[in-house]
Queue: 3 jobs
Job 1
Amino acid sequence: MTRRRIIGIAAVAALAALVIALVATRGFGIFAAHGDDVLTLSGNVDIRQVDLAFRVPGRIAGMPFEEGAHIEAGDVIAKLDPSPLNDARAAAEAQVGVAEAELQKRRAGNRAQEIGQAQAKLAETEATLANARENYERRSGLVKTGAVSQAVFEASRAEYGAAQAQVAAAGQALSLQRAGARKEDIDAAAAQLRSAVAQRDKTETDLKDAVLRAPNAGTLLTRAREPGAIVQSGETVATLTIDRPMRVRAYVGEPDLSRISPGMAVTVTADGNAKRYQGTIGFISPTAEFTPKTVQTQDLRTDLVYRVRIIVQNPDNALRQGQPVTVSIPATRPAKDQ
């Protein structure tokens, strides 16, 4: 074997040894394979649903959307027959009118005619008193001479006392008419008016609640009841799926937990769908899920997983709730063993 051939074989062997060393040590720590920085997680599109119900009972008058229809926030899902609620509102309006009139009457005080009537009554009793006094004084002298019997005198004195009491009562009645209603009576009338207004406002609220609107945009999943059905308060009428914002639920193992953080960009893909959806990590659960709940050994730590929520930025109708997806996180931090 020539010297040149021996040198060539030695060079090839040295180069092979160098390549093996580079592979085994990942470039002696200088280079890292690109794929080692990508963390792949499996997950599902979150199922977010809301059961819609009326706050008041009644008969369903209409449901304009069929199952599967796309609903915008604020769209009318169903309506109740408003006739009973309109009747209740009319009755409440009438009660408000009665309470307002009563309060105005209390505040205005008594009418001039009522005060005049009390004055006339006082004048009448005063005239009766004057006549009774005259009879009493005249008979008090006659009884001493025997011209008037003691019984007649005693009757005159009783009439005189009764007339005095009638004058006092008439005077108090006139004072009450002039003073008007007491403050407590006015306050009670005002409270009655507030109660009537509150009842009227409740009927207005009930009328608004007779129209069921979508709280969010989404898809009408089910119509649990149909027009003509009598429903009770809180009974589910329809179910709406909320697909915006679209969220993906995935789980990361405890060894990879330190490699990710909220705000990182991710790519979401689904089987049979060529589109690559962009998203960001919005939330990482602070607590472990599944078993075991209490970590006791180093081996058990590898079984812990943490829930990760991903917000999809460009969803479309091809991405469905509950669908399995693959989440790729390209810019993760290196693993601990790298």
Job 2
Amino acid sequence: MNNEKMEAIRATGYGPASVLKLQQVSKPRPAPDEVLVKVIASSATTADGMMRSGKPWFARLFLGLLKPKNSIPGTGFAGYIAGIGAEVRNFQVGDRVFGETTLGFGANAEYLTLKANCVVLPLPETLGFSEAATFCDGHLTSYNYLKCLGRVKPGDQVLINGASGSLGTAAVQIARHLGAEVTGVCSGKNAGLVKSLGARRVLDYTKEDFTRGDNRYDLIFDTLGKRSFTECKRVLKKQGTYYSPVLKFSLLAQMLFTRFFSSKKAVFAATGLLSEDQLRMLLAEVLELQQAGKLRTVIDRQYPLARLSEAHQYIDSGHKKGNIIIINSEDFTSFQSISKLKQQTT
């Protein structure tokens, strides 16, 4: 029986940020095909907040009807391998890693376990923990939408709504890298940031409604799900597509209708539901972009694990730009002890 304890955040039910509580829970042990990760940094995202609130309601069919089935939130992480199962051959104790727990959640904790063939990659020495912990939210999701689904090509007119958020800041850079002419929509105070990331035009949504403008777009990526396909279709080109990662009943209905009855399409896709092999491949491609200097991570704020509830409150305010990081420890003496253990076992 495992009597070791660790600190973790647990959601006591669905609701506001206050349902997130710091608790002592049992430290997990890796199964034969699993690795144990000492989490140094994890992410807190808009999607995490939606899952915490249990909305949209039909998502509870997968997350848990009355309360989350997996009570420890968080999906993106970066840290060290602190233990391996007997069957694991691709990682060793002490390896720096980062990745995504997908529907397993559990990243907002001191330790987590996951299968060694899941969405976990070696962490390059040139990439910090805080930055790496965000890759599977903004970077990976935006890359899937723009490159794989949208097939953005040179000369395409692409509009990013919510261009200063975690998905938006990544999407602007990825669309520009793919050769598109990018229009970013954000608040005026974030216009300089979005422009610096590669947007050719920046629209202040408090002063200008892009759905009433004269410009037409091949692709609209509404990272926040704030504008519906119905509102956006006027400014889509004849074969244009509206994409949103925010699932709503109305969007599902529009997807079905436009599939058969319109040249302008509405599309939702859950990147996290791709196979682990697909996600690992996409994550490796995103890492290549970052290592080549084509993709940088915008970090707004960093919070200690105990203040995750406060981080969610800030996300709920709608004023964040870029990414929110949750730090477990900045004391790297833990790595020194792990390195010694690695030397003893090799």
Job 3
Amino acid sequence: MNRRRIAILVVLVALGIAAFATSGFGLFKARDDGALALNGNVDIREVDLGFRVNGRIASIAVEEGAKVKQGQLLATLDAATLDSRIAQADARVSQAEAQLAKLRNGNRAQDIAQARARVAAAAAVAQDADRDYARRQPLVEPGAISRDIWEQTVASRDKARADLQQVQQALSLLNAGSRKEDIDAAAADVRSAIAARQGAATDLGDARLLASTDGTVVTRAREPGAIVQPGETVLTLAILRPLRVRAYVAESDLSRIGPGMEVVVTADGNPKRYKGTIGYISPRAEFTPKTVETENLRTDLVYQLRIIVNDPDDALRQGQPVSVSVPGARPKHKD
């Protein structure tokens, strides 16, 4: 009798386990609280910092692991050569501006007075030459003067008239002042000199390496005294904020989520539950593994999504694996 009771009890227990495992032999569905669990990693976001100009590193103010603020001075180059370029550029600007001022101000009164005096002197010489010409002309035919003297008289008159015309034109140029084209060319020369000076000043500013954003120095690639080329990495900075998590959702669960949904991010060994928001869902599907794209593995099709963590702290490290829960995920479609 006891054996029969034990046998009945065993059968009842077995039926209960089977009913639980099969949701009441298919008559009842398991309760779904709607949460969706995903796995991912904290994004590794780094920026390589370097000088835009070449030179010798004079100083590096930070060590690996140092936390820096945007705009903080991190390193400098020896600026002796750049300072010399600035001085040369300043002198070139002064020279160009002086030339432009000279052209715009016109000729000095003393220069014009000298030109007028030369005109008066040339006019007097021309008058004397004209008088000699008029006096000797009647004497040529009678033979009172030689042919050589007459030819010298004519040549002297012509030269005096040409000299007078030359100094008159010179006086006219002084009175007219500089040509507009010359002034425009001088103004362009000033602008060119100023632009060269600004370029030298930009290069001098680029001899100071500043933090592009808040972050942590993860690599100090060069040391003071090293000669670096433009763009060569000197420091590598890890970008701390915003903190992003990269996760993947299966194709079958893609319809359950959308941008803007709130999520909860947790990490192994860390009791804190971080709040986040789905910010981006990739429009491209990826196969896992990527090298297998057969039709019978469509269940392995996944979509990448990016999550913005709203309340990060130093306990979340870049590259760290995390778990993501989407409490408000839409119900999964049942076939």
